[in-house]
Structures are given as C-alpha cells and as structure tokens.
Please model this.
Amino acid sequence: MQKVKRILVSQPKPTSDKSPYFEIEKKYGVTLDFRPFIRVEPVVAKEFRTQKVNILDHTAILFTAKVGIDHFFRLCEEMRITVPDTMKYFCITEQVSLYLQKYIQYRKRKMFYGTTGKLEDLVTVVAKHTDEKYLVVMSDVHDVNKTVDQKKDIIDHLTDINANFTKAVMYKTVSTDFSKDPDFKYDMFLFFSPSGITSLFSNFPNFEQGDVKIGCFGPTTVKAAKDKGLEVNVEAPTPENPSMPAALDDFLKNQK
Model:
C-alpha cells in the first residue's frame, strides 16, 4: 500500500504556529498543503436589493454559521440600515451566538440557540417563538446545512413548522478552480463540508480515487463522499478522535 506523504487540507492555513497540523508534519515527515476547495464571496447591496427583502420587516434573524453573521452586518452597513436593539437572534449553536459580540452588545434575552448543532434542535427553539418574523441568512447553496440524511435543509424544517420566515441570500459559495493546476497531486484529501466534495467533482468530473485516501469531518461530509462512491478512510469527530488533526495523527501512526 502506498504511504501517504502529501496531504491537502481543504481549509485556510492555521494562523498559529502551535497548530497540531504542524506537529503532524514534523512527527511523520509529511507535507500538508492548506487549500480550501470552496471560497465565500459577498452578495453586494445592489444584488441583494433584487431579492426585494426588507431586513427591518423582520423581528428575528436566523444564522446557521458565523460567516452569515459577517455578511449580514456587512450588508446592513452597505445599505445604511440600523438594526434595532429589539432584534432577536436565533443561532445553530451557542458558539455561533457568541460570535455576535463582534457586532452588537450581547444580551442573553435576545439570543436563542440549539444545543447540539443539529438543525432539528434549532428549529425546536424557533417553534417556541411563533410570533416572530424570521429572516434566514444563507448562501446561494443553502442545502450545505442539510441534516445527515440529506433530505431536509433549514428551509424545509421551517416550512414544516409553519414558521413565518423570509430567505435572504447574503453570500455565495464558489468552487475554487484547481482543474488547470499541474501540481495538483496528493495522496490524501481532508474535507470539512459537503461543498468540498462537490467542488472536487466540479474540478475533476472523472475523478477516480485509486490509492488516494479521503478524510471527512462531520456526518454530512462523510455521506456526501460516500454518495459519490468514495471510500472514506478517516472520519472525525469520533469518541477516540474528536478533531481532524487527532484522526489524521491516528491514521498516519497506523499506516503500514
């Protein structure tokens, strides 16, 4: 079996020298290249206005990712919209909720979030606040946040509970073009979202795995890979390996 020597990590390069990825490079003598398969581009104010969405018609904003928070407040600034102090915020996790402190004074009575990071838990919270009119901040490919069975996204769930909501596309998810890169040769790919898998096949429609190893973070990413016929060699998080660096370390330690 071919040993893994060159690995593509489909995330931005860590800013800290203490990242466990750099320790793995030294420990096993491998090369890690940090090259995101997808990038996020803003929907500018002129584009957003074509959606005919009035932000101030809503009493609550729903976020499924930190990137949505950044683009919501960016657009508000571009459009000179002052978000009222009465606005409520519903987030996929407490971690995402806390990120709001970057833009507003954090008041717990205005913040609501799910406990597990699953869409179902967030929607359960939303269902307890039926009087709100929700603005759902999303990308143009909003189904990247589907549940593990890939059947329902956030819009499907909100429709099921008859929530009063409006979709607002505030950023775009674009595949990075690697198709003409002659140096795009790796023994292993590490993916962190279904969009990464989609981008791989967008770049290389006839991609065949062969001896290439695949690592995936999160159940939706694992399923997206398997749906494309890929063998997933490394999975995280697991009880034994709660992070991708831990799972990668374990794989490299045991490779023959």
